[in-house]
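Everyone, study these two lines:
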Amino acid sequence: MEQSTSGGEKETGTQQKIDVSKLVSIIPPASELKKKEKRLTEKRVRIRFDRTLNEPIAKIPSALASMLDIKNDERVEVVVAGRKRFEFKALVFESTDENVVYVYPGEIEKNGVADNSIATIRKVC
């Protein structure tokens, strides 16, 4: 003896059949389970020389530092043209222009890199 109830469920005696579509709606899709926020590991920026710096320091805008997860006194790597690599100590400062990083010109200038060059900056692990 089958009785139809609301919601598409059918009762047979003491057993109750459950609508499979309701169970499937509870399970999240696979894309939702694998969803991760992507963190930037490197970014292309303009390198400007700051002659007031007396040691190898890179002054990084706070917006860029938060994107790359860089904090004060951490080491950052600046790569110009994919060949010339330089390491600096990070100094985070407030700035409206997040695509310009100010660096100590000592070693960079000796290696033939010009002011206002485009470079890639990344955090050294």
About this structure: Strands lie at 2-4, 10-12, 15-16, 42-49, 57-61, 75-80, 84-93, 100-103, 117-123. Helices lie at 20-26, 30-33, 62-68, 106-110. Residues 2-33 form one domain. The mean pLDDT is 84.
